[in-house]
Amino acid sequence: MCTVEKMLVKGIRSFSPDNNNVIEFYKPLTLIVGSNGAGKTTVIECLKQACTGELPPNVGGQGKNWVMDPKVAGESDVKAQIKLRLRTSTQMPFVVVRSFQSVQKKSVLQFKSLDATLQTYNKDTHQKEAITYRCADINTMVPTLMGVSKAVLDNVIFVHQEESNWPLADGATIKKKFDEIFAATKYTKALETLRKLRLEKTQEVKEMKLRLE
User: Fold this and answer.
1) How far apart are CA 8 and CA 86, in angstroms?
2) pTM (2 decimals)?
3) Percent of the chain at pLDDT above 90?
4) Rg of the chain (C-alpha set)
5) Which of 9, 34, 115, 175 could join 99 via S-S bond, C-beta 3.0 to 4.6 A?
6) Taking Cα atoms as reference points, which of 177, 152, 150, 157 lies closest to residue 166?
7) What is the DSSP string of 97-130?
8) Is the pLDDT at 150 greater than 80, yes or no?
C-alpha cells in the first residue's frame, strides 16, 4: 500500500508563501483538527492537487482563488508550492512538486501553473532522478506509482466536501462515477474485443478445416 509521509504547502489559500512548517502524516491514522478557516480542507485539496493535478471545484475561473491573493500578502505577485513525499508499496520514496503563481495586473488577477516535477530514486544507480511535466505526464505517473486510479483519488480518497454527496445524485451520475471508479467501460470494451477475436479465430479454424478436406 502506498503511504503519504510529508507535505509542505506555501502560498495556497491561508498558507503563507514563507511557510516552512511541514505536515507529517502518521500511521495508521492522522486526524486534522482546527477552527474554521485554519486550512483543514486546504490540506486535502493540496493532497489531491499534488496527486492528480486537479484544482478544487470552488477556486473560480482558472484557479484565481487557489493561490493567496497578492493584495493580502502586500505583494504584486505570490508564488506558491506544494511538495508532497510519498512511498510506494515497494517502499520506494518519491516526491511530487507543483509550483504556481498569482500575479496582480491592474484590475486583473492572473493565475499561472509554473511547473510540476516528479522526483524518484533509482535503485540501480542509487541516485535521485527528476522528471518534469515537459517530459512526461505527471498526472498519470503519480497515480500509477501510488497503485490507485485517478478516479478513486478524485471521487473517494481525496473527494472534496462540496462533491462528496455524489452517491446521492441521480442514477445517471452515480452510474458514471461507478464506471470511472471500477473502470467498467474499459472492462466492457475488453470483453467485446475478446468476443470479436474469438469469432475471428473460430472462422479461421473452419476455413482451415475446409481446406484440409
Assistant:
1) 12
2) 0.80
3) 38
4) 23
5) 115
6) 177
7) EEEEEEEEETTEEEEEEEEEEEEEEETTTTEEEE
8) yes
